[in-house]
Each structure stands twice: as structure tokens, then as C-alpha cells.
Amino acid sequence: MVPESASEIENTVRAVLRDVLGLSAERAAAFDANTPLFGALPELDSMAVAGVLTELEDRLGILIEDDDIDGETLESFGSLTRFATGKALL
Length: 90
Fold this sequence. Notes:
By secondary structure, this protein is an all-alpha fold. The protein has helices spanning 6-21, 25-29, 46-60, 77-88.
């Protein structure tokens, strides 16, 4: 998949979080830019982070290097979406 818009990427990030973390569709749909992720969602532990990043790579057709990720990347839904958008729409 080659995303064509930021909203398409946001939908993909939402779907990845839902699928990898086993969240309900309603819970994932309620995420907004300020929704905290790492440290706030018990489902998003260090092992799940690897799954989320791998799934984003697969679904968005991007490459995520270890040095691309910092403490802010998974801080909130908005920061993760901005990160994915920056990688996918380069």
C-alpha cells in the first residue's frame, strides 16, 4: 500500500493499534491527537511496540530504523501518526 493522504495514514495507524493491541474498534476510533499511548495503554508494552512498528512498516510500505524512534514517537496517537506520515509521505 502506498498511502496517498494523511487521513489514510491516520486510519492505518488506528487500525494497526487496534489489531496489534487487540483494542475494540470503538476504543481505537475514540483516539485523538492527544490520546496518550506508551505508558498509558497497558496493552502497549515494549514487545507490542515492536509489533506496532513492524506492522506499520508492512502496511505503509516504509522502513523504520532503530534511530528513527525516540521517547516522543509513541507518546501519543498524534505523535505516532505524525511520525508515520513523515515516513510515508516523503
